Amino acid sequence: MKYLSILATAALALSSSVQGVHAADEAKPNTPPEPAKRELTPEEAKEDAELAKKYPKLPPRTAPKLLNLPHTTEPRIDIEEHLAWPKEIGDAVIALWHGNATGALAFTSDDNHWASDITRWTQFAEKYPEIGMAHCVNTNESMREGDKENWRKLLALGHEIQSHGHRHWGKGNFEGVTEADGRREYAAPVEIIEEVTGKKPRILAYGSGSGMADIAADYYIAARSTYGVPNDAATISYMGIASNTNLFLNPTAFINTLLDRETKVFGKNYYGGLTSAHFHGLPKGDWEALFEEHIVPPMKEGKLWVTTLTNVAMYGQSRDTAKLKVTKNTAKEIAFTLTDDMDDDYFDHPLTIKVRVPADWKTVTAKQNGKEVKAKLVENEGKKFALVEAIPDRGETTLTP
Ligand SMILES: [Zn+2]
């Protein structure tokens, strides 16, 4: 029986991952596997037809309802434009990352939802409430990550429950997999997680680091691979985000390469980019000292945005497709509109908009569609700017002193 042999392979993959040996860090960036070629027996074909009915193909999406952006090697944005300050009073620029940070560090955790981990994640949540954590879970009942009580405990910490696939399928599990079976792997967690948490998962961590990206793209805004290098901000492969499990082996390089133009990781500099780090349980040993030494200082200075991969995927794709237009520019009021190509049901993270304001503004109040949003004044080289948090497609934003 095809499904049984696939389950056996999935179980093997799981047992290696629970020992913390996620085998795919040396893998190439995510590539979809070949579709199934083998002929199904009549019994299998019947089963497959049932699955195809339950998890049908979905119609393609178009702007402004995109769920994710296609893979590209051409830059989608010019990062220098987003890092620059607006020139004239009334000019506005979308910041490269939230809070006008230069680089982003995004976290996910896989395969670690049993009691001992909950204790350690509780300590993490108490110590770093502003960071959060996206816990990626398998939803098949027979897998221990599918323990919904533990999901509820993680949710209560303010953490996210995201998808790790239904049965931890990944590299090595795909042979003979039909499209319907692949759809179940990614669609079932959406239903099951939403049932428990009240929220659809938005991101996927591929089991064992690679998966069927074309199918996953129908259900998630982003998916995480395990290829262990940072990501260029202009060409993030949102359905195959490179990520590493070894952040604490060399935090200096993985962080500094985002924040200066010299530091290289495997021969390449990632200024303005994204480092995705994932864990299987919090690392053993003195990770906390390394965290305090390498991550907290640039985070506190506002240079490094440290958050969940979900937030980064929302921000990045809204930014990459955004249109920002100043609609009013007077001494006492500046207004702008902000739109993007992404589906508003999934993309509700604000973008940080940098606006140069008149030098005599002592305070700033910002309202989007009449509702107050976060804004603050900052100075750069003697000029005054507002940093405003506006959500794309939610109406005009006005700034007043
Ligand atoms: Zn895993």
Outline the structure in words.
The model is unreliable at 1-29 (pLDDT under 50). With 401 residues, the protein is of the alpha/beta class. It has two domains: 102-315, Glycoside hydrolase/deacetylase (TIM Barrel), CATH 3.20.20.370; 322-400, Immunoglobulin-like. It is globular and about 75 Å long. 29% of the residues lie in helices and 21% in strands. Strands 2, 3, 4, 9 and 10 form a five-stranded parallel β-sheet that branches. A five-stranded antiparallel β-sheet has the order 11-12-18-14-15. A four-stranded antiparallel β-sheet has the order 1-13-17-16. The protein contains ten helices and 18 strands. α2 (42-54) crosses α6. The longest helix has 19 residues, at 179-197. Bound molecules: zinc ion (ZN). The site of zinc ion (ZN) has 7 residues, from loops.
